[in-house]
Amino acid sequence: MKSSDSWLKQRQGPHKQKEMQKLLSKLGSMFLDQYRELVAAVRFLSVLPMPGSSQLFDKHEVAPRLVVGCAYFPLVGLLMAYLLWFLLLVLTPLIPQLALAALLVVALVILTGGLHLDGLMDSCDGLFGGNTPERKLEIMRDSSVGSFGVLGGASILLLKFALLASLRVHTLPLALLVALPSARWAVVLALRVFPSARPTGLGAAFHQAVTTNKLVLASIIELAIVLVAGQFIGLIVWVAVTITTLSLGSWITRTIGGLTGDSYGAIEEVAEVVALLVLLLVRA
User: What does pTM read for this prediction?
Assistant: First the structure.
């Protein structure tokens, strides 16, 4: 019996080692996949440098998969909020709040590379400038900016400046930590809920890449951020941003038959303003 037991142990030893190696390999692969998603999210939503592959498509799979990183969009907003918070800490003792609010708006545009602002301006040109859905989409595809785009961009920047300047200085970190992640979560919600206005293009590809599981993960991350940072106030902001996203997305879908890449930028910008406005109303 002893010799039989020792023989079984010898057989089980290599088997357990192989199982452990498989488990570690699987965990390592999962970690690399999630890191690739995080890198994609940071690079898409900001100009921040991140080490890692810059490929949008995962070529390791038989059918190349678009790497969006949408589940980590709220984390990118949180990262931007911390960077702007650092700017606050440095500049608050040196300059008045009006100048500080203006610098925050400019810094946010620089951090995002103007991506969402450009989408808002193109959306304003198309949605308010065309007579038919086809003409509206054609105008939105045009890279030149029209009068409606200029008015929309100027209005959104003015609103952000006014809201940031109206909040108390000690409330600005809370505003950044709640508003920026919430606005980027709004993009994930819009990507999942509403159809694409065009059958092709980056917007359509992003819409197909956002699954229900990724929306759930992004929602969990977003709720964790706003509840830790703002508690009940953060929850109120999240509800307001959700209602705004669904309402604006529904209106755009009725107007042009779905959303485009520009529409997602417009939703992000509007959601950011709504979040700041709610914070101002609640803290007033």
Answer: 0.83
